[in-house]
Amino acid sequence: MDKGAALASSDGVHHDRPGAIAGSAVGTGTGSSSFASWRAYGRALAQTPRRVARRALAATAPGEEMSRVRARSGADMARALRWWDLVGLGLGGMVGAGVFVTTGRAARLYAGPGVVASYAIAGLCALLSAFCYTEFAVDMPVAGGAFSYLRVTFGELAAFLTGANLIMEYVFSNAAVARSFTAYLGTAVGVDAPREWRIAVRGLPEGFNQVDLVAVAVILLVSVCICYSTKESSAVNLALTAVHVAFILFVIGMGFRHGDARNLTRPADPARSPGGFFPHGAAGVFNGAAMVYLSYIGYDAVSTMAEEVQRPARDIPAGVSGSVVVVTVLYCLMAASMSMLLPYDAIDPEAPFSGAFKGRERCAWVSNVVGAGASLGILTSLMVAMLGQARYLCVIGRSGVMPAWLARVNPRTATPVNASAFLGTDSVIPNNKSDVFTDP
């Protein structure tokens, strides 16, 4: 959608207070909405320069976001989540398949065995960022996360640009994550997933004509789940996350059992690779921290659930910050076990854990366990991301820069069904040219 058109939410409606956002009738479904008809939309486009000048820096008050703006969704979202639900959502969102790859790359290319310190530094940075999200979410417990926070501080333009980027990021990353689920699941069950589980579709551009049926099915299944109930979605996430964490603890235990502490300081080829726990010094550790920080992405999605938390002041800090702390401990233990399995210069950067176990007698089967665990991690991260993206779009609809029907909350399920269904479908249609439609 054109950015100028998107910023238009009403047909020239003025408000006395600069903090009041034009288009207060958007959520009511009346004819004053810019999206009421093509004629109304055309008038809104013609008024774009004036509207942008008036609304770009206009900010709402936190109280407005929690009352008048939230009322545009109609029914309220159910406040059914507790702190343990948020911890589970944080773990599910962060601990995906990425850690099984980034750990090896960071150790091999930058930090060596010091990747343990890299994860600790990255975890501290993520925790400080989580404190910021927690502060905002407790002060203003509404769905929308970063979009809502920017809207009350820097105004609509900054919020819209951020929200648009977040939605685009979620749609493309969810498609890619669903495709990677197929690959890891194929590895776990011994199937060539690209050959067996994809079909060619005529009429699509070359390079985007392979439809991953499993990925499409997973996205649609998760979409149905999050439309049905947030509490039930959290229960499913908790169950999957518990099993996934059990897989991770098993891999950690196997690494410590079959590893050698001498690998923490001794490279495989001393003539070419420096030794020591920090072979590349502090610079290598911090470069490794910058790389592995990607493994912490996901805790921000938990803040979008603030509107559905029973006791925001107590549950949100424990849930968001607690999940980051738990994940940091798990990541450091994983990095330590991998570093003990192999010297850092012998680690396969593309498949560090699987490669380490395949090279050992009587341990090759553990690589299949890694694939199964990664598949579960992908499912939980996909579910948390799709929960978060639906709430972003719901609040963007409340603000009037997207059609108001996206902001509607279903009174029976108490979830943003329209936004969830729209983004779920949008993640699999070929027009996105996302990784669900991939090269053979």
From TrEMBL:
Gene Ontology CC annotation, any one: membrane
Keywords: Membrane, Transmembrane, Transmembrane helix
Location of the protein in the cell: Membrane
Residue stretches spanning the membrane: 83-104, 116-136, 148-168, 207-228, 235-257, 277-299, 320-344, 364-388
Record has Coiled coil as a keyword: no
Keyword Cell membrane: no
GO molecular function: transmembrane transporter activity
One Pfam family of this chain: AA_permease_2
Membrane topology listed for this record: Multi-pass membrane protein
Family recorded in the similarity comment: Belongs to the amino acid-polyamine-organocation (APC) superfamily. Cationic amino acid transporter (CAT) (TC 2.A.3.3) family.
Protein name listed in UniProt: Cationic amino acid transporter 6 chloroplastic
Source organism of the structure: Zea mays
